[in-house]
Amino acid sequence: MSDAAKFSLSGKDVEFPVMSGSVGPDVVDIRKLYAQTDAFTYDPGFTSTASCQSKLTYIDGDEGVLLHRGYPIGELAEQSSFMEVAYLLLNGELPGSAELGTFSRTITRHTMVHEQLATFFRGFRRDAHPMAIMCGVVGALSAFYHDSTDIRDPEQRIIASHRLIAKMPTLAAMAYKYSVGQPFLYPDNSLSYTGNFLRMTFGVPAEPYEVNPAVEKAMDRIFILHADHEQNASTSTVRLAGSSGANPFACIAAGIACLWGPAHGGANEAALNMLREIGTPERIPEFIARAKDKNDPFRLMGFGHRVYKNYDPRATVMQKTVREVFDALKVNDPLFETALRLEELALNDDYFVEKKLFPNVDFYSGVILSAIGFPTSMFTVLFAIARTVGWVAQWNEMITDPDQKIGRPRQLYTGPTQRTYLPVEQR
Ligand code: SDX
Q1: Burial of 60 (C-beta count, 10 Å sphere; 0-12/13-18/19+)
Q2: At what angle do helices 267-278 and 379-399 cross, to 10 degrees?
Q3: Is 26 considered catalytic here?
Q4: What is the pLDDT of residue 338?
Q5: pLDDT(227) > 70
Q6: What's the pLDDT band for 148 if we cut at 50, 70, 90?
Q7: CA 226, CA 358: separation in Å to the nearest integer?
Q8: Which of 61, 87, 381, 392 could be disulfide-bonded to 161 (CB atoms 3.0-4.6 Å)?
């Protein structure tokens, strides 16, 4: 592509540099557009806007490619571990065994939370949505860890990063325990990151808890699949919050709030609820018709993506993992057959083919999480545990990017022009 973008506006010819990345679309650097033309660009939803430069994750939506620091998600999901992917995203290279050991031990030794945080849960109703609890308690971490909130200090940034990655599973397990009226379990540092989370969630003080290796492996793979995903809505929220200098705990709480939406991370909960509403394959045509009906707000949850116009590579791994978990737990869930049939019918329907709507990461995850024993309301919390690695890595990259400044978009104003105030007796 050329090294400059030229166009004229109101009779004035302007030219902007074109920048190329290591792979993927070039960008037109329009930072001087307003100064040179007195006009803004208009891009609600940022469908054609690059907000930053990043080395973390590359997505080719047309080819269904997802790379973390250059490594394909399929290879990481099959061969790596969530702790290793966390190290890779944070540091840029896969760790040697000694580096991985040190990193895992560091994370493990941050898994406990301040004892007073337990009282925060008591303020919530038992039936509070766990994501509401997570928004609250993660934001509250900044009240307990003042020694890692100075974002200008690289050491404090790393400690805050480790604390967030380590404490999310503990807080998530506490949110679940609180909802079912069971006592909190402290972390057991002899377990893996994911094994520790499973024990804190499903273990009880009355008896030992045996981590099922197949479930541990499947859960760890699900965490890998959700770790990072370029400049998605919640990651952009974390970056925007961080651009004001807000502390990392507040930024991650903002990301959790954004992820909760059903169009984003909340889709895994919505997708399983949709499959339950559909029930049997016989009712699928009724729901496909509703999804195609312009007058019906219903959408097939777990389908479609802003970037993927091909199969989401994470959904491929997720579908394979369903069978592994079913075999390991000797369970079956007829909803999986319904999901497979729904995918088959949708991918043979012109509407979905023309609009390039494929299953995304959220379509099959709920079937697995439900089989493992998580209630639907915990699904997005699990997404948040994994995505905290990506949020923290993206936040660190943003803080150290010399191009970054406070994010402050402009607008196309369509409201009333200036007018004179009239006292109420004259109106
Ligand atoms: C995640 O960004 C990320 O990377 C997110 C994520 C990550 O890892 O961070 O990948 C995680 O959020 C995955 C997406 C989960 N959300 C869902 O599954 C909810 C259902 N899907 C959608 O609502 C939708 O597909 C989005 C929000 C995911 C993408 O929306 P876009 O890119 O803004 O596309 P759009 O809403 O403009 O839809 C384009 C067309 C529209 O039809 P027209 O108005 O052009 O006629 O496709 C239709 C939409 O009506 N459409 C759907 C549909 N998704 C889009 N129609 C039926 N069912 C759907 N699921």
Answers
A1: middle
A2: 160
A3: no
A4: 94
A5: yes
A6: confident
A7: 17
A8: 392
pTM: 0.96
Contact 229, 362 (CB under 8 A): no
Nearest C-alpha neighbor of 273 from the set 343, 375, 376, 373: 376
Cα–Cα distance for residue pair 118/196, rounded to 1 Å:
18
User: Which strand (E) or helix (H) includes residue 5?
Assistant: strand 4-9
Rounded to an integer, what is the distance from CA 397 to the centroid of its chain? 17
Å from CA of 277 to ligand 1 middle: 20
Strand partners, 7: 14
The SS3 of residue 343 is helix
Listed in sequence order, the residues at least 6 apart from 282 whose beta carbon sits closer than 8 Å to its beta carbon are: none
Structure token pair of residue 158: 């790393």
Classify domain 72-260+378-400 at the CATH superfamily level.
Citrate Synthase, domain 1 (1.10.580.10)
Angle, to 10 degrees, between the axis of helix 313-329 and the axis of helix 213-225? 170
Q: Which CATH number is 4-50's, of 3.40.50.2000, 2.20.28.60, 3.40.1280.10, 1.10.760.10?
A: 2.20.28.60
34 Cα: distance to centroid of ligand 1 (angstroms): 31
Cβ–ligand 1 distance for 9 under 6 Å, the answer: no
Using CA atoms, how far apart are residues 232 and 405, in angstroms rounded to an integer? 19
| Cβ(387)–Cβ(226) below 8 Å | yes
